[in-house]
Structure formats: structure tokens, C-alpha cells
């Protein structure tokens, strides 16, 4: 039943969301520190180092995080086969990645000094390189927790990691006053600590064994995910490179801060996808065609939710930035609406991309997403020189739309699902109307602005009920489930 599917998804989504949101909240605790102890140029250095860590992680993992997320369902019924598979992948990725990082550390200075001339290779980028390598085992631990739907354990480790890195960064940045270098040191030492956490979790799943056939099969699936993930990196991070090229590090810092606020939307949609992907895979592999009506309805509810959350992100971003930062960073709010829109579109992409993974058509996915990345580069070249960080944000949103449309067309040909287009259309229209109203509202001081926008955002759910997006039966089931849940809570409280 759909209510059971929603309960399962809600439980795991909540588990993943709690961890990621708490992690983000702890991360936001660093913003007042960053904006007071670091200059915008320092923040730009951190952003560039983050780019290096992100792109290296793509290549060092060889697409095997995605491969494990798919092949787990082929082997989980046989513990010995699963252990052979996981051992093979961990051993292969570990040895190849270690060798690659040694070579990059020895020979990379001449390359990086050309690509990122404003950031010294030693020590900044050296730390970024080895932070990426040390994070590989934790990536494997996280994907296993995800496919096993152990969302609260995943979140506990995630929150612990953020707490540790926060304490370390405060020590190096505030106490030792080491600036951007201190932040990178904190991330590096945290990665060492959680390397051992990951190995402790993985010890029951891996052994010293290697299966050549499993290696070939998994890498055949995973290698096309490198251009796919590289495309994601190009879309979400090369805007900083172009801003650095056409503007300066201060603009990169402003854009990065605004992007950080807008990416809260990405944290929410990604957390839901952590629950959605294993749910989709397990249900599609066991029920086949019978699962499609459930997928369709859940997509409708998901759209209603992420647009509501996105409106909240946009409405309150300016006030939050003014509260949490100093005047030098205030203009960063301008990019938030475009970044939120981009990640709403990316959230829609999450709902349709799993069909491609299910049928192991990763080459097709790589073709679509890499085409989107090339399109993004073209848009950045056209828009950033003229419009600066606004151009970068607009390019990101347009690219996510392009990629979503391509993946939607492909996935619906491979594994057709009859989505509720009329209801989804109504949801989008209400969202656009509410956002349009916000553009013509007068500006007040921060308390007044928050009150007015809090009232405005309530128009969204009201509008959904006015135009009858939800059926009477759905409303009835929702009320019954809410009543049962409330009664259970009251009984537990009384006891």
C-alpha cells in the first residue's frame, strides 16, 4: 500500500535528513568564524581547495560508490558473494588511488600552478589531495549504510564527523590563527580520524581477496560514472573557476557563501534520495511493473514538498545572511534563488535517474550528463563575463533543467512510469504564483520581513488545497495516519 511505502520512505528520509541538516547547522556555526577570521580571498582559497578535493574524489572512486549501490542488490542474498565483491572493490580502489595520489603529490605542482595560480600547491592543495584519498573508505561505508537503509547510523557518523571537523577548524583558525590553511588542516586531520571509523565498520564486509570477474563487471559499470560525476562537478564547481578567471577571489567568496545557503535545498533532496534510491531499487527488482503506480504517486508528493521547502529557502535567505555574516558578505543573497531553483530541478532528476541505474545503462547516463556539463561551460563563458556571480547562478539553473529533461526522456523510455502530470503542473503553478507575490512585497526590517514572509509561505499549502491537488481519499488517509501517530505518541507519553 502507498501509505506503507510512504512510511518507509519517510522514516529513512527523516534519518538521513536529521544527520545532514544537523551537519549543515553545525557547519553554519562556522560562518560567523569564517567571515570574521577569514577574508573573502581566504574563503576563495578554501573554495578552490574544495574543488580539487571534489574532482579528485570523482576519479579516485572510479564510480564504485555507484556500482556498490547497484550490485549490492545482485549479491546481498549471498553473504559470501557479497563479501568477495566488496573486498575486490575496496582492495582495487585503495591500491590504485594511493598510487595516483603519490604521483600527483610529486608531479602536480607545475600543473596546478597553471590551473589555479592564486592558490599555492604546497601546502594548500597537498592537503586537499590527501584529504580526498583518506575519505574513500568512509564513502564506501556510507553507501553500505544507505543500501542497508540504516539511516540513523549514517546520520550519527555524519554528525560526529562534522562536530570533529568543526572543533579542529576552530582550533586551527581561531586559536592558532592559521587562516585558510588552518581550515584545511582541520579537514585533513578529521579525515584521518574517520578513516579508522570507516575501517572499523567495513571490517566485517571485507577480506584480503580478489575476484577478477567481479572487478571487471563492477568497473565496467562504474567507469562510465566518472564522466557522469565529472559532469556534476563541472556543473556545480567550475563556476568558481570561471569567476576566478573573469572576476577575483572576493567574488568567488561571495558566490560560494550564497551557494552554500542555496545548497541547503540540495542537502534536503539528497537526503531524500538516499532513502529513495534503495527503496526504488528493492521495490523495482522485486515487484517490477506493479511498483510503478507507487513510484508515480510518491513523485507527486515529493514535488509538493521540495517546492514548499525551496520557497522557504528563498524567502528567508537574505535575512539569515544579514544575521549570520558581516556587511562584506551581504550581497551573496542575490544568487540564492537561482541556486535553490537549480537544486529543485536536481531533486526532480533524482526521481527519474534510478531507472537508468536499474537497467545498468550508465553509458547512456554519462552521455546525457556530460553533454549538460559542456552546455554549462558554454553558459558560464557567455554569462559570467557580463553578469558575474548572477550569470554563474543562472547558468547552473539552466544546466540542471537541461540535464533533468534529458534524463527524464531516457529513463521513461527504458522504464516507463505514468506520472501525474496534471497534479504536478498545478503544484508548480502555485509555487510560481507564491514566489511572484514575494517579488512585489515591500521590504521591512528583519523581524518584520520574517513575519511577512512566514505568512506568505502559508499561501502555498492553502493554494494546493484550493485547487484540489490532493484527492478527498488522500486527505482522509493522511488524517487517519496523523491521528494514529498522535495517539501512539500520547500513549507512550502517558506510560
UniProtKB/TrEMBL annotation:
<keyword id="KW-0812">Transmembrane</keyword>
<keyword id="KW-0472">Membrane</keyword>
<dbReference type="InterPro" id="IPR050833">
    <property type="entry name" value="Poly_Biosynth_Transport"/>
</dbReference>
<feature type="transmembrane region" description="Helical">
    <location>
        <begin position="186"/>
        <end position="202"/>
    </location>
</feature>
<protein>
    <submittedName>
        <fullName>Flippase</fullName>
    </submittedName>
</protein>
<keyword id="KW-1003">Cell membrane</keyword>
<dbReference type="Pfam" id="PF01943">
    <property type="entry name" value="Polysacc_synt"/>
</dbReference>
<feature type="transmembrane region" description="Helical">
    <location>
        <begin position="450"/>
        <end position="470"/>
    </location>
</feature>
<feature type="transmembrane region" description="Helical">
    <location>
        <begin position="152"/>
        <end position="174"/>
    </location>
</feature>
<feature type="transmembrane region" description="Helical">
    <location>
        <begin position="390"/>
        <end position="415"/>
    </location>
</feature>
<keyword id="KW-1133">Transmembrane helix</keyword>
<dbReference type="GO" id="GO:0005886">
    <property type="term" value="C:plasma membrane"/>
</dbReference>
<feature type="transmembrane region" description="Helical">
    <location>
        <begin position="124"/>
        <end position="145"/>
    </location>
</feature>
<feature type="transmembrane region" description="Helical">
    <location>
        <begin position="43"/>
        <end position="64"/>
    </location>
</feature>
<feature type="transmembrane region" description="Helical">
    <location>
        <begin position="263"/>
        <end position="281"/>
    </location>
</feature>
<feature type="transmembrane region" description="Helical">
    <location>
        <begin position="85"/>
        <end position="112"/>
    </location>
</feature>
<feature type="transmembrane region" description="Helical">
    <location>
        <begin position="427"/>
        <end position="444"/>
    </location>
</feature>
<feature type="transmembrane region" description="Helical">
    <location>
        <begin position="223"/>
        <end position="243"/>
    </location>
</feature>
<feature type="transmembrane region" description="Helical">
    <location>
        <begin position="333"/>
        <end position="352"/>
    </location>
</feature>
<feature type="transmembrane region" description="Helical">
    <location>
        <begin position="12"/>
        <end position="31"/>
    </location>
</feature>
<dbReference type="InterPro" id="IPR002797">
    <property type="entry name" value="Polysacc_synth"/>
</dbReference>
<feature type="transmembrane region" description="Helical">
    <location>
        <begin position="364"/>
        <end position="384"/>
    </location>
</feature>
<feature type="transmembrane region" description="Helical">
    <location>
        <begin position="301"/>
        <end position="321"/>
    </location>
</feature>
Amino acid at each position: 500500500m502507498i501509505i506503507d511505502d510512504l512510511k518507509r520512505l519517510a522514516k529513512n528520509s527523516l534519518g538521513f535528513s536529521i544527520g545532514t541538516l544537523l551537519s549543515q547547522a553545525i557547519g553554519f556555526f562556522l560562518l560567523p568564524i569564517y567571515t570574521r577570521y577569514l577574508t573573502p580571498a581566504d574563503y576563495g582559497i578554501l573554495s578552490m581547495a574544495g574543488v580539487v578535493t571534489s574532482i579528485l574524489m570523482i576519479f579516485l572512486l572510479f564510480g564504485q560508490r555507484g556500482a556498490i549501490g547497484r550490485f549490492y542488490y545482485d549479491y546481498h542474498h549471498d553473504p559470501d558473494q557479497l563479501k568477495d565483491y566488496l573486498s575486490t572493490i575496496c582492495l582495487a580502489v585503495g591500491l590504485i588511488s594511493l598510487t595516483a595520489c603519490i604521483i600527483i603529490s610529486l608531479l602536480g605542482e607545475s600543473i596546478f600552478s597553471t590551473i589555479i595560480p592564486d592558490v599555492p600547491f604546497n601546502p594548500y592543495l597537498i592537503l586537499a589531495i590527501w584529504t580526498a584519498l583518506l575519505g574513500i573508505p568512509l564513502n564506501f561505508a556510507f553507501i553500505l549504510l544507505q543500501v542497508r537503509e540504516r539511516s540513523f547510523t549514517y546520520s550519527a557518523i555524519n554528525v560526529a564527523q562534522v562536530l570533529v571537523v568543526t572543533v579542529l577548524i576552530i582550533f586551527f583558525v581561531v586559536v592558532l590563527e592559521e587562516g585558510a590553511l588552518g581550515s584545511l588542516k582541520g579537514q585533513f586531520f578529521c579525515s584521518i580520524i574517520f578513516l579508522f571509523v570507516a575501517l572499523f565498520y567495513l571490517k566485517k564486509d571485507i577480506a584480503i581477496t580478489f575476484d577478477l570477474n567481479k572487478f571487471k563487471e563492477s568497473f565496467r559499470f562504474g567507469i562510465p560514472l566518472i564522466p557522469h560525476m565529472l559532469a556534476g562537478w563541472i556543473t556545480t564547481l567550475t563556476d568558481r573557476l570561471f569567476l576566478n578567471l573573469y572576476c577575483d577571489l572576493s567574488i568567488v567568496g561571495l558566490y560560494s557563501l550564497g551557494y552554500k545557503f542555496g545548497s541547503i535545498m540540495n542537502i534536503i533532496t539528497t537526503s531524500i534520495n538516499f532513502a529513495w534510491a534503495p527503496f526504488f531499487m528493492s521495490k523495482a527488482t522485486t515487484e517490477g511493473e506493479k511498483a510503478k503506480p507507487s513510484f508515480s504517486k510518491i513523485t507527486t508528493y515529493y514535488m509538493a514538498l521540495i517546492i514548499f521547502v525551496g520557497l522557504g529557502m528563498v524567502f528567508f535567505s537574505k535575512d539569515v545572511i544579514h544575521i549570520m555574516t558581516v556587511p562584506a558578505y551581504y550581497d551573496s543573497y542575490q544568487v540564492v534563488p537561482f541556486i535553490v531553483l537549480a537544486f529543485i530541478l536536481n531533486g526532480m532528476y533524482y526521481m527519474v535517474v534510478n531507472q537508468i541505474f536499474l537497467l545498468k545503462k550508465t553509458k547512456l547516463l554519462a552521455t546525457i550528463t556530460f553533454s549538460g556539463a559542456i552546455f554549462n561551460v558554454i553558459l558560464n563563458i557567455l554569462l559570467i563575463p557580463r553578469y558575474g556571480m548572477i550569470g554563474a547562478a543562472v547558468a547552473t539553473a539552466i544546466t540542471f533543467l537541461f540535464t533533468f529533461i534529458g534524463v527524464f526522456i531516457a529513463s521513461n523510455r527504458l522504464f516507463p512510469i505514468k506520472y501525474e502530470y496534471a497534479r504536478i503542473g498545478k503544484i508548480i503553478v502555485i509555487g510560481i504564483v507564491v514566489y511572484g507575490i514575494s517579488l512585489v512585497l515591500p521590504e521591512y526590517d528583519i523581524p518584520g520581513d520574517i513575519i511577512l514572509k512566514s505568512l506568505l509561505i502559508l499561501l502555498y499549502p492553502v493554494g494546493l488545497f484550493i485547487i484540489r491537488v490532493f484527492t478527498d481519499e488522500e486527505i482522509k488517509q493522511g488524517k487517519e495516519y496523523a491521528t494514529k501517530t498522535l495517539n501512539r505518541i500520547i500513549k507512550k507519553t502517558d506510560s
